[in-house]
Fold:
Amino acid sequence: MDTKNKTTLITGGLGGIGYALAKEASRDNNTVVLVQRSKSEEAEKELLSLGAKEVFQIQKDLSQKDAVPTLVSELNKKSIDVDILINNAGLLTGGLIEDQKDEDISQMLDVNLKALILLTKALIPKMIKKKSGKIVNNSSVSGIMCIPCASTYAASKAGVVSFTKCIKQELKPAGVSTLIMLTPGIKTKMYDDIKNLYSGHLKLDFLSAMSPEEWAGKVWTAIKNDDDEITPTGSNKIGLLAAKYAPSVFEKQISRYFSRSK
Structure:
């Protein structure tokens, strides 16, 4: 896909991966639309300095029931026609299933899966009309690598994988393509939160992480190449392949790191 002079919308646009992707889009002279709970004049100035044509910041809490309809309404009022949609916003849950709070699970599912589906559904018609566009959905290696203490989070990310694979087939004849980000550990606040949520019952020696900038660069290249999936390298790649093609072996290995007692 030619990524020059497009309009790119990124949810969670001020977070680690989201903002790194916003910088990639800016370098290609995109109009950048950041959707998040807060605004940042500093971020807007930086993106413009990198080459963004325009920067729009729209404050939304995607866990709220009316978030997507009101977001779409604001896009229409501003005559913003999205070429690349990056569903990046996400929340993390974790711990033994019986210890996770109902409210946390519901909010996480609303952001990670429900808002992603509804926003994609809302923006697809214009892409189909133009016979061009890219839907980029941020899943996770957790959507494939099912580990203890990640039950509800992994369920949301598995949902993202399934949803994206289905619409890939629906949209291909219409000239619209998709990309699944099977994101590995990234050095962000969410990565730090894994220790707080999981480490009580799971040894995390197997975890590794890369910078948001490195991952965003790979994702942007995948968009340019019109790839339909981007996967990690190194130990994360090995774990992902084991979970896909030798699930019993993967489960046996990961169980060694888990204990129900603290």
Q: What stands out?
A: DSSP finds nine helices and seven strands in the chain. Residues 130 and 171 are 12 Å apart (CA to CA). The radius of gyration is 18 Å. The chain has a mean pLDDT of 96.
